[in-house]
Amino acid sequence: MNRISVFLILCSLVPLFGQITWTEHNITSDFDGAIWSHAVDMDNDTDIDVVGAAWEADAIAWWENDGNENFTEHEIASSFDGACCVFGIDLDGDDDGDVIATAYFDNTVAWWENNAGVFTQHVITNTFPGAYSVYAADLDDDGDIDILGAARASNTIAWWENNGSQGFTEHFISTAFLDASSVYAADVDSDGDMDVLGAAGIGDDIAWWENIGSQGFVQHTIAGNFNGATAVYAADIDNDNDIDVAGAGYLANTIAWWENAGNQVFTQHNLITGLNGAGAVYAADFNNDDTLEVLGAAWYANTIGYWGSISSIITNTFDYAHSVFAIDMDNDGDNDVLGSAINADAITWWESDFVGIKENKGTHIDNAAFGATIITGQSFLPKESKVRVYDISGRQVTSNSLKPGVYFLKTDGNSVRKIVSIK
Fold this sequence. Notes:
Pfam families: FG-GAP_3
Mean pLDDT: 88
InterPro entries: FG-GAP, Integrin_alpha_N
Strand content: over 45%
Organism: candidate division WOR_3 bacterium SM23_60
Helix content: under 10%
Distance between the termini: 19 Å
CATH architecture of the largest domain: 7 Propeller
Number of helices: 0
Protein name: Secretion system C-terminal sorting domain-containing protein
CATH superfamily of the largest domain: YVTN repeat-like/Quinoprotein amine dehydrogenase
Keywords: Signal
Structural class: mainly beta
CATH class of the largest domain: Mainly Beta
Radius of gyration: 23 Å
Shape: globular
């Protein structure tokens, strides 16, 4: 059943169009050389915490969310030389967030085991020259989490196979991927296993490696002349049930995506050019239209923005914006944005004001009368009813969190009713 908390007034639908408003919340502004941030529930208390890496401070830390988006910093490491990428995930299956990170000058990929907030370091490798990017996924489909890395100085993409007890065996995917700057994993060919994607800054390449089993990978080029390719991400951007690819090129000054035709033939679409130092990329649905916007950060333009069915610059004053991520930070049903900025020493999140609808139980309304009708409490309509809800900008909204505001409800008979949330 579809639940809404409203009172209803007969009205006409007014098609207006607007943009999402973003409210900035600073998590820290003294994390020296804040180069990377990621968000995950670290302490298993159902809210979203933040992990970060600081290039100048050689530090890894996490920020505990008290449930109201107030964050307390906790140090994990303070001598991780050239800390540059961090990823939070439950690596050992004990229901809390562990941390994986790279250290460029230490040539190291390591993980920290979380035991009730006490972190123990485990070195995966310290012979990975220029260790830069890290990601984690089950590459061999054996039910545990493996680790992927990209090393700029050694032009290498590698992965470390988890034996199920966090013992790791190294496998090289490529040792000739010039200035390997980014690594990611997704099932690109929809065959049920995880493939690997990478970006090469000197090679100007966006590529993917097909997982053929038995630790074997076959390289395929997506773009071979994407100048200064430095970041890659993969998801079904256009909602056609295959995996597309997004990338940032810091010399091309471009954020682009490559549309998968369904047979791993990719067509490039430039989303924005002239974005000075475009260096990070992610994708998320910010307006609940079932297609993804591509989120990007630009180093020299100090910018975080997104492009797609809707587009907006969130900030252009985030000094040396270096990483970007999207997640529902405040548990209100929409995607917020998390970013880090090296020169600003900052990790910041931006709260989206996008409106949605929750689903749950409540008062059953079989037929709403024409004219003014007030409904109190949690209310819902029959699931079989043809009901569409729009926000005041004219966007149809789906089943997510409904913030206080004005909406329009279109019912079976094409009658349109004004909805005012009174939560």
